[in-house]
Every structure is written in C-alpha cells, then in structure tokens.
Amino acid sequence: MRLGKSLKKSLKKGLQIASTCTVLLVLMLLTPVLQAAEKISSVRVWNAPDHTRIVFDLSGPVTHHLFTLDAPDRVVIDIPNAQKTRALDLVDFKGGPLVNVRSAAQSNGDLRVVLDLDRKLNPKSFLLKPSEQYGHRLVIDLEQSGKAAPVAVVKPASVSQPKSYSSMGSGRDIVVAIDAGHGGEDPGAIGANGTREKDVVLQISRRIYNVLKAEKGVKPVLIRTGDYFIPLATRRDNARRKYNADLFVSVHADAFHNHRARGASVFALSRSGATSTLARVLAEQENQSDAIGGVQIDNSDEMVTSVIYDLAMEGSMEHSIKVGSMVLREMGGVTHLHKKHLEQAGFAVLKSPDIPSILVETGFISNPTEERNLSSKNHQVKLSRAISRGIITYFDQHPPPGTYFAARKLQQDSQQHRIARGETLSEIAHRYRVDLVSLMQYNQLNNTDVIREGQVLRIPNS
Ligand SMILES: [Zn+2]
C-alpha cells in the first residue's frame, strides 16, 4: 500500500508531535526519580514507662503513611522517595516493646519500615522541623493502650483528690515531685568532656529521692525515671494530677557561653521579666526543651488567665520564693553559689498555678571544674543532701495542713505548764500572753471543769 504525499507529510508531523509528547512524558515520569531521595541518617529509640519513642533523622522533609497489622503486632511506615540506609540495620531497640526493626525498598520507590512489637500499642506519628542540633525528624510514639489523653486546660487548686497517708495515722505524707530536666531526644547542656545534663540531673534527682525517702512524713516521687523526654507541661501536670504534689523541684545543670560562669542558682517563676540577664538566658534555654525533645502540639506556653488562677499563682509563688531561698542557703554550704539570692525568670516548667515550684541549677556544665564536680558521686551526694535539707527546713516551718509535719509542728510549738498550788487559769493565760478562751479550748476545758495542782496544760502559740 502506498501513501499519498500529503498523508505521508501529516503522518510525519504527527509522529514528531508524538515523539515530543513521549519525551515530555518520560521526563515527567523521571522527575521523581531524578530528585535525590531523602536519607535516614540515624534512628533513636527511647523507652519510657508509658510509651516508646522512635525518632528518624532525615536529610529533608518527607511524607509518610502509617498503619498497623496484628497477629503478630506490627507498625508499618511507608515513606515515599526515601532511601534505605545502614542506620536502619543498626537500631538499638533493646529493653522495650520492640522485637525488631526491618526495612526494605518497595518497587514503587517507597521505603517501608516495619516495627515488630511484643504487644499491641497505639502509634502516633508526626514530623519535626529542624531545631538546634537536629534537622528534620520523623517521630513515632508507641503508646500503651488505654492511656488517658493528656488534659490541656490547667485548673486551679484541686483539693478533692486523696493524698497519700502515712501509716502512723498522724497526718499524711508531704509529696515532693523531683523533676530531672531534659531526657531522651533532649540531652540538655553538654560539657566540654561530653557530660550530658540529662544524665547528671537524673543521678542527682535519684539521690535527692533517696535522701527524702528516708525522712519520716515525706513521700518523694520522680517525674522522670529514665532516659526519655517529657514535655514541660506534662511534667507540671504529672506533679499536680498524678502525684498531687506539695512541691515541684526541677533539677538542672546548665551552660553559658562564658565558660567561666560558675555556681549553683535557684529560680522561681517570674511573670514580669527576669531578675538578671543570666536568668533570662537560662529560662530561654530551658524553654527550648519542648522543641528539641519533640512536642507535637505546642502547648508549652498555655497560660490560663483567670482571677482564680492568678490568685492561686500569687500564693504559690510566694512559697516558691521561700522554699527556693532555703534550698539556696543550704546549697551555699556545699558548693559555690552564682548569686547569694534567689532569682526569678519565665521558666515554662514552673508555671503550676497552685504548687510551689522551683528550678535548681546545680552548677554550670559549661565550666570544666563544675562539669567534673557534677559527675562526681561525692559532690552529687553533697548537693542532694543540701537540696533535701532546704526542702525539709521549709516544710518544718510551713507544713501543709493535715500532714505529719503539721502535727509534729503543733506538738513542738506547744509549751507545757504544770499547775502550781493556788494558780488560776486566768493567771496562767496572762503569764503566757494567750487569751483565756484559747487556753481553755486548747486544753478542751469547760467553764465547769476544775483544775488541780500538778495538772499539765498545753499552751497554744500566742
Ligand atoms: Zn536544663
């Protein structure tokens, strides 16, 4: 069959168009392949008591698709346009619910990561933008089933919750929440010799816990018990809701650009600026913790503004300053102090409306001498005893009502008087400068009661 000239011409033109289209099509198909695939440079696993966090360090932002499979329980993460790297074969996942981490390139160009689990867990995933030492991160949180959703709104004074009672029946224990700063993804400050703040503050916190545990009438609790991250708001909320704490103590050891800066400091919250430049800088550094540690929704600075909230806050801040000053004074006996008085700044972790809250900087990890001291057992013991002494001194003087400490104070404060021959109640009241009615009430006496020589009266505080 022969084709006419004109037909040949138009066919040729058609083919030209077709080939141009083909080239375009091929280019379009090639485009995603030509783009450099994102790489996973490292993977970290952090096991916490109630969840496990897996963090993928990425060379750039990615999208991802996550789903679960059961029998056996697995979490599958598909990441388009990502490359399998050696980091995925070297994941250290021991000591938690992870049985294995597997990965393989899919034929469609996706990277599939499979987390084999020993139990059913609820996965949650989110991406984090670059922050401080980290680039883009993909975070997978595997939460234990049935875990209550975190409550976002902070309510003032919750008095209805039962407190823990000491076995003596002479008043409940005082609950002291000890919060070791940072943890997990957030190492905190790092010293020149590689000492990490998150490690030394956990050691010191455990020592404080042990000192306070030996104290009758005190129940210490550790907010962080291992190497994992807790958002700042959750630290406060756990102290208030989970443990119903009477005091919140956050333990830190921070860094300053001037390596000569040294000495311990104690801070309370300030709602109107910081008391010094250093206090402001440290508060800013500490408040970075959520961005570094990884918080999906930024609730780190949610302050509920209400009159009740403000009143509760004022009351607890006054006591924060009192307890903080006592802790600082005791610390002055065992370590150099950065300043002789308590300082204040806008630390997010201290924003509890109704619990006295302090932040203790045990020293500067950026100072070589203090870095060495903070790692030494001897120095840690001294620090933790001093901090505990300050806390006990405060509660001796200001025991919360209904506590063993309150009962003991009442006992200690009341003087006793043995009635001599011919003495009258009004004479005794006058001598101790207390009013007669108080004296009678204190000793459960009625108008009709007769007092006798040799009888012992308790004298109330005037
Ligand atoms: Zn810190």
Structural write-up:
The chain is of the alpha/beta class and 462 residues long. It folds into three domains: 38-144, Sandwich (Immunoglobulin-like); 174-402, Aminopeptidase, CATH 3.40.630; 412-459, Membrane-bound Lytic Murein Transglycosylase D, Chain A (Roll). It is built from eleven helices and 17 strands. The strands form four sheets. Strands 11-10-12-15-13-14 form a six-stranded mixed beta sheet, with helices on both faces. A five-stranded mixed beta sheet has the order 5-1-2-9-8, with no helix packed on it. A four-stranded antiparallel beta sheet has the order 3-4-7-6, with no helix packed on it. Helix 2 packs across helix 8 (377-397). The model is unreliable at 1-7, 24-34 and 149-168 (pLDDT under 50). Zinc ion binds next to strand 12.
Strand tally is: 17
Structural class: alpha/beta
Helix-strand string: HEEEEEEEEEEHEHEEHHHEEHHHEHHE
Give the DSSP E fraction (strand runs of 2 or more residues).
Answer: 15-25%
